[in-house]
Design brief:
single chain; alpha+beta; five-stranded antiparallel beta sheet; four-stranded antiparallel beta sheet; 36 helices; 31 strands
Length: 1022
């Protein structure tokens, strides 16, 4: 159906109408005699879809001469009337008192535009509505402005010529036509005038490189030739300029049968133009559509052709009489049609006036007014969708706001999905997949577009694809032109050759609906037939592309789609705590009805319920696995190595047949079938001789298992320790294991205590385990190993373990000292016993072990230092060691004479920390005084004497400095006219700024002070 419906609302209008405007339910008709007829538009008594004009009043001699043009100025609720070179404002509803715009005298044209001025947060001004009334006068233009209904300053600019047509292209820019060939762009802010340059056939090559390339691709050169040198069109005697505002930022400039679109930069805004079958007599625009009056020709009646301003295609051609089943009183070919209502940016009715061209018939019949009313937007879009014109439907939808079509978002998603299917049908798989991804389409629907080898039971015949996505299979193929409706079309003039500029009419308006990564140009210009896209059809594509290559491209696109969906669904399931391990608790995909799966919503993963997410994951993983097997066998492993929703029964045999055992093991792991995986890995290890190659797969597998699989780990790790214990131990030490550490220690202890020892060392040294249980356990393992190695005569290994024990018990504080002390033997491991005695503050016993048992005097002294560093109040520890040296008990096994030398050496080194009197008491009576020299010298130095001397010296120094300071402060210098600066040798005046140098009191200019100071410091130069 046509987007507009026409019906007559007023018959037998005897005067000649010159201007028509509609405001609300009122119709205003201005005539050539200056009369104004006012009608109301009421519902038709017999048809609710139609209206009828009912007369209200006739204002005779409303103007002195013909009313040339009328418009409604909303801001001041007034009717703007142009008559006799004068522009007048008539307030509604009484149309009085009139206000003549005196500054706009000699008016020839005018135009109105309104815009919203956004709020200014800096100036704290709210948003406001600004309306401009621009009036074209004789060699000037006048601008009237209203801001929120309040008049603003009127501005006026002089022009070289008189503008006969004006159209705003933006709130601050307007196109003005002096003649049909002389059109300029006027900027209100800069007052600049930019001439409009029209392309011609001979200068197509001068276009910018990118436009020239596009022009060559779509045949622009031929199109420009078809325009027949646009700049020379319409220069006949009756030519008049035509400027029609289209959309928010475009103006259509027409001449004869051609029209081009220009933007705010005075350049072509589209690579597409308009060509009518005949030169339109008048052109008008209403939201998203262009109306053109085509003249009668060759016996065909005049007609109204309606074109989409988005796609530029003819949406409706209505020959006269419009929608009438009864013959017209006059011959249709002898009727003239006129568009008298001004262009409207919003959805408003269009008035067409028909009148007989014969004066006698005109006087008898009068004129007839026809109203073209637009069908609802939803009906128009549905019709385009049903016809398969998805790009046109999207372009129309984008121009509407939410108030015009409340379900706009849902419609856009639906139409874009159908557009993607149409791309898929003609072989543009990547474009289709990109749209499916953006729309979060149910993956089962996408998979259904593929053959049984991939889709399985979801495979859908090609002829049902559109229906599958909620559409109707269009009767004409997408992209096929439809014949003009409503009767025969008038004969057309010869159109431009195929591939003209009209072929690019969709380039500017449809790119917004394509995915960001796609380029619509290549797909539009590829010239592909829909049938070539079927990957299951027996027909071959055009050119050298084979069916196999076409099928591979489709599978590559599907693989990209499934790879994108996979992490989204698994991530959403993971957020809900659902993993592939829970697959057995859900119904298998093969047991779910197809209709139920296809009926799942096209919704992002985050908005799906768990049951829906599981279904989508099953579809995606199953299809992805089948796709990999066909075109990407090397990627099957990546699918098996992650948690997946594939059914093992379907995957297992195929992987074994292809000998993909590693991938099969990964698949077992993902499905928690660990026994099967470890059995397979052990079988495969039989073919490897290198221990690392043999064990690494099993070690890595066991290391990944968790606490719930502890029995499996212990069971299948046993054979790896028999092969190589160092490699096998990595099962528990490669990274922090989730297994209970005590259970691991017990397990390793049963195999080999050395393994348990290495594991506990790893826990304490690398993982910083502080649990006393493991510190005690490590000490027990050390003691057990030291004892066994000692008994077996392996001294070197025993000493190595014993050194580890000593270092550990000295550095660790987490073990139980009393427990360890009880386990130490009485006749061995004396150093360990000494360390433990020190831990329990039995320092005398510990030092006796170092001196009497170990004969390690240096370690004994170091022991004292450690105790003193930990607590400096225990300075008596040094005197205790001296007593042990000089007074050994009889059963110590050491004589006083043997310990005298190390005692004196200790006394000399530690004399500051020893009490002199107590130390002398401990010395034997026959010790030579010379051997005590260092000790005695240190002892006789009294700290009190040293302190008093230092205090008195400091006091004396302070007094001397103060005396010198007073002496310097009392010194004076006399500056008179005879005083000479010793640096620059110039006189020092009484008002000069001076500097005095100590200690001798030399006087210099202030600016000479630094140079003279250097002379004093460095001494005289030779």
């Amino acid at each position: 159906m046509a987007p507009f419906a026409a019906h007559n609302i007023l018959d037998a209008f005897k005067e000649r109408p010159e201007a028509v405007t509609v405001h609300g339910d009122h119709l205003y008709i201005g005539t050539s005699t200056g009369n104004l007829h006012v009608y109301t538009l009421d519902d038709h008594p017999e048809n609710a879809d139609k209206v009828v004009a009912q007369p209200v009043e006739v204002k005779k001699a409303f103007t002195r001469k013909a009313i040339e043009r009328m418009a409604f100025l909303r801001d001041i609720n007034s009717l703007v009337v142009l008559s006799d070179w004068t522009l007048t404002l008539f307030p509604l509803p009484n149309l009085s008192p009139p206000s003549v715009l005196a500054q706009a005298r000699n008016a020839m044209s005018f135009t109105i535009t309104s815009s919203v001025l956004p709020a200014d947060k800096v100036k704290a001004t709210p948003a406001s509505v600004v309306t401009h009334l621009m009036v074209g006068c004789q060699k000037k233009v006048v601008l009237y402005t209203w801001k929120d209904g309040e008049p603003q300053e009127t501005k006026e600019w002089s022009l070289p010529h008189s503008p006969r047509a004006i159209a705003f292209v933006s709130p601050r820019q307007a196109y003005m036509a002096y003649t049909a060939a002389d059109i300029v762009l006027f900027n209100l802010d800069t007052n600049s005038i930019t001439p409009v340059e029209f392309p011609a056939a001979q200068n197509a090559s001068s276009l910018p490189a990118n436009m020239a390339n596009m022009a060559n691709n779509i045949g622009m050169s031929a199109a420009l030739t078809g325009f027949g040198n646009f700049v020379t069109l319409g220069l006949g005697a009756k030519a008049k300029p035509s400027l029609v505002k289209v959309g928010e930022s475009e103006v259509l400039i027409t001449r004869d049968y051609a029209g081009l679109f220009f933007g705010p930069d005075s350049k072509l805004s589209r690579l597409a133009g308009m060509e009518w079958p005949a030169a339109p007599e008048e052109i008008n625009s209403v939201q998203n559509y262009l109306f053109a009056v085509l003249p009668a020709s060759g016996g065909s009646p005049p007609s109204i052709q309606v074109r989409s301003s988005l796609s530029l295609q003819a949406a409706h051609t209505a020959p006269f009489p419009f929608g009438s089943t009864s013959p017209s009183p006059s011959s249709p070919t002898a009727t003239s049609l006129r568009l008298l209502t001004p262009s409207a940016p919003l959805r408003q009715p269009v008035m067409v006036v028909s009148a007989p061209t014969d004066k006698t018939q005109l006087a008898a019949q009068g004129s007839t007014f026809w109203m073209f009313t637009m069908r609802p937007w939803g009906a128009q879009i549905d019709e385009l969708v049903d016809a398969g014109k998805y790009p046109d439907a999207l372009a129309l939808l984008e121009t509407l706001d939410a108030t015009a079509l409340p379900d706009q978002v849902a419609r856009r998603r639906h139409i874009r999905a159908l557009l993607a299917v149409s791309y898929f049908m003609r072989g543009d798989f990547d474009f289709a997949i990109d749209i499916f991804l953006e729309l979060d389409v149910n993956p089962a629907k996408v998979v259904s577009l593929y053959p049984v080898s991939v889709a399985g039971r979801f495979a859908t015949p090609r002829e049902r694809w559109i229906e599958l996505f909620g559409g109707r299979t269009p009767s004409p193929t997408v992209g096929e032109a439809t014949t003009p409706p409503d009767g025969p079309a008038p004969p057309e003039r010869p159109l431009s050759p195929q591939g003209s500029i009209i072929a690019g009419r969709l380039m500017g308006s449809l790119d917004m609906f394509l995915p960001a990564a796609a380029t619509f140009t290549s797909s539009v210009l590829a010239g592909k037939d829909d049938d070539t896209a079927s990957i299951s059809d027996a027909s071959k594509p055009s050119g050298a592309t084979t069916e196999a290559a076409q099928s591979r491209r489709a599978l590559e696109a599907l693989m990209r789609y499934l790879s994108d969906r996979r992490p989204k669904y698994t991530g959403a399931l993971a957020a809900l705590g659902i993993t592939a391990a829970a697959a057995p608790s859900y119904t298998r995909l093969s047991e779910t009805p197809i209709a139920d799966v296809l009926a799942l919503p096209d919704t992002p993963a985050g908005q799906l319920v768990p049951q829906q997410l599981v279904r989508y994951a099953q579809v995606v993983y199953t299809a992805l696995f089948k796709t990999y097997l066909q075109i990407r066998t090397s990627l099957v492993g990546s699918l098996c190595r992650i948690e997946n929703w594939c059914e093992v029964a379907e995957v297992e045999e195929e992987l074994r047949a292809r000998k993909m055992f590693t991938d099969l093991a990964d698949l077992y792991a993902g499905k928690k079938m660990h026994e099967d995986a470890l059995k397979l890995l052990k079988e495969l290890s039989a073919d490897d001789d290198d221990p690392r190659d043999k064990l690494d797969p099993t070690v890595r597998y066991l290391h990944k298992l968790g606490l719930q699989d502890m029995d499996i780990i212990f069971k299948w790790a046993r054979w790896t320790f028999d092969v190589n214990a160092d490699i096998a131990l990595k099962i528990f030490t490669l990274e922090e294991s989730p297994l209970p550490r005590k259970a691991v220690v017990d397990y390793l202890r049963r195999i080999d205590p050395t393994l348990a020892m290495r594991y506990v060392e790893h826990l304490i040294g690398e993982l910083h385990e502080e649990e006393p249980l493991f510190h005690d356990r490590l000490i027990d393992l050390y003691l057990e190993s030291v004892t066994k190695l000692g008994l077996s005569g392996k001294t070197e290994e025993r000493d190595k373990i014993y050194s580890k024990l000593l270092v550990f018990i000295r550095s660790s504080s987490q073990y139980h000292t009393d427990r360890l002390f009880a386990h130490l033997p009485n006749d061995d491991l004396f150093e360990a016993r000494a360390i433990l005695l020190g831990r329990i503050n039995k320092h005398e016993a510990a030092l006796e072990i170092y001196v009497y048992k170990l004969k390690n005097y240096i370690e004994a002294e170091e022991y004292c230092k450690r105790v003193y560093r930990e607590d400096q109040t225990r300075i008596s520890i040094f005197l205790l060691l001296l007593g042990i040296f000089l007074q050994p008990p009889p059963n110590s096994g050491s004589s006083p004479s043997a310990l005298l030398k190390p005692a004196l050496e200790f006394l000399a080194r530690q004399s500051p920390r020893l009490d002199a009197q107590e130390a002398i008491k401990l010395l034997p009576p026959m010790v030579a005084a010379g051997s005590l020299k260092e000790f005695l010298v240190e002892a006789v130095r009294q700290p009190t004497f040293d302190t008093r001397v230092v205090r008195e010296v400091a006091k004396s120094r302070k007094e001397e400095v103060e005396r010198r300071l007073v002496a310097f402060q009392e010194r004076r210098v006399k500056v008179d006219d005879s005083r000479i600066c010793p640096q620059c040798h110039k006189r020092i005046g009484a008002i000069s700024v001076i500097a005095v140098h100590l200690p001798r009191g030399e006087v210099t200019h202030y600016q000479c002070r630094e140079a003279f100071s250097r002379r004093l410091r460095d001494g005289p130069t030779l």
